[in-house]
Inverse folding.
């Protein structure tokens, strides 16, 4: 099993391009099921989650060619509608094939996603939305079975106890593009990945307006055709790298940076004393070049995770790590996944002073981080541990880094390009914590 060995202390500098977005690619790949022709996606990052989606699409009758970062997808067997547990359990985002399968083929059988390390992640809103479009939903052998001869447009409220749902919005929007009549999604997710998906669907011949706002209007069409779509830059990767530069008091240039999609994060980083400047105002604000730099004077800040355009939950762990080194106490509140704090106990092993009460963590700054062996528990938390290792005194070993490989393309190589000292090595099964504690 691979692990990372990190020598702390290097100040990151240089230039790095931000990869295409995983969370935009996954629903876009699923939406290819809706096309009667070939879908081409560009800037798809080579990640394990993407490979899992390629495998899933293959099992449900799509031919996928993934050549570096370009992918072409076309349906070859429209009768294969079963997204099996074997794949769904490796990646919850598999649920986003449900809406496209139902709309394009009239039937979908998708294994119900199970538990997740970052907390409860129900799919009730996805199902409610599809039922509102006329689907019959049943559960059989752990599978969600959705059927409809012809979906019919409807007005659907998609808000839940934690606000909107990103993949729920993607599912309902993808199904409604082929429904008869007009669909209105109220309390739709406003995330840039939804706007990106709507742009792709429109380029395939759909009629979607309002994406990026809480009210999306969709006029159903008979069929969708081919498209050549460039995936948006990954705002979470961009934010993570910017924070890695900040925590090492570095000075780096990031290109393909989705500045406008990160305003809540940039606001908090700026309040913490990190300098982030666009290099050229003539570049598009969502694919631009920024210079990130910071000195030793990080200030404490408060932030609360919220649906977009608020501060994203997927950058909570990384910012918490930055704030460990701020000069004072910060308060972090998690409002999307109130238990998404697997990183807290690991950061504590590195000397962080973190005090959790329910969905809130008080970060007592002013101290230092000290290298230690730590264990990644989820994707974003593992990125946070790697960042902590960069800023720590001495050596940090991060185990179970398969989590980080789900969402960052060779993160250690990217950070090494900026001068980090990170080595990937095989921990060996006998030495791994899994074998030591028998989990
Ligand atoms: N929720 C419900 N019912 C539902 C669906 C969601 O109550 O039917 C709740 C969730 O439990 C959560 C909140 O609504 O409290 C928001 O969940 P959402 O459905 O928006 O999450 P998601 O679509 O499953 C995507 C990202 C996550 C990201 C969340 C929130 C992908 C593949 N995943 O998940 O990304 O945290 O939106 O922004 O796009 C990650 O990349 O590390 C990651 C976890």
């Amino acid at each position: 099993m691979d692990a990372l060995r990190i020598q702390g202390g290097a100040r990151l500098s240089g230039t790095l391009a931000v990869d295409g977005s995983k969370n935009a690619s996954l629903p876009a790949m699923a939406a290819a099921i809706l096309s009667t022709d070939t879908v081409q996606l560009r800037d798809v990052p080579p990640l394990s989650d993407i490979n899992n989606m390629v495998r899933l699409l293959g099992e449900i009758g799509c031919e996928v060619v993934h050549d570096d970062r370009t992918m072409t997808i076309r349906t070859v067997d429209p009768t294969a509608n079963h997204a099996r547990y074997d794949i769904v359990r490796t990646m919850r985002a598999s649920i986003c094939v449900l809406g496209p399968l139902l709309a394009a083929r009239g039937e979908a059988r998708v294994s119900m996603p199970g538990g997740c390390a970052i907390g409860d992640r129900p799919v009730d809103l996805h199902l409610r939305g599809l039922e509102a479009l006329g689907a019959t939903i049943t559960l059989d052998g752990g599978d969600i079975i959705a059927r409809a001869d012809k979906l019919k447009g409807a007005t659907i409220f998609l808000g839940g106890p934690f606000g909107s749902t990103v993949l729920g919005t993607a599912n309902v929007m993808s199904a409604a593009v082929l429904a008869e009549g007009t669909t209105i999604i109220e309390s739709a997710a406003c995330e840039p990945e939804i706007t990106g998906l709507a742009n792709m669907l429109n380029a395939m011949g759909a009629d979607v307006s309002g994406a990026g706002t809480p009210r999306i209007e969709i006029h159903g069409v008979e069929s969708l055709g081919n498209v050549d779509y460039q995936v948006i830059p990954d705002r979470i990767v961009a934010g993570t790298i910017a924070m890695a530069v900040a925590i090492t008091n570095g000075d780096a240039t990031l290109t393909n940076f989705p500045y406008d999609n990160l305003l809540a994060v940039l606001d908090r980083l700026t309040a913490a004393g990190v300098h982030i400047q666009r290099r050229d105002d003539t570049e598009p604000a969502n694919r631009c070049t920024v210079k990130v730099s910071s000195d030793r004077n990080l200030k404490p800040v408060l932030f609360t995770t919220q649906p977009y355009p608020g501060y994203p939950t997927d950058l909570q762990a990384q910012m918490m790590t930055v704030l460990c080194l701020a000069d004072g106490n910060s308060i972090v509140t998690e409002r999307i996944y109130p238990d998404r704090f697997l990183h807290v106990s690991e950061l504590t092993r590195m000397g962080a002073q973190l005090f959790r009460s329910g969905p809130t963590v008080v970060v007592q700054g002013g101290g230092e981080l000290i290298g230690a062996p730590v264990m990644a528990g989820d994707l974003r938390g593992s990125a946070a541990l790697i960042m902590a290792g960069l800023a720590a005194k001495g050596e940090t070993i991060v185990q179970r880094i398969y989590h980080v490989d789900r969402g960052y393309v060779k993160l250690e190589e990217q950070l090494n390009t900026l001068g980090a000292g990170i080595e990937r090595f095989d921990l060996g099964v006998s030495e791994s914590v899994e074998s030591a504690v028998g989990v």
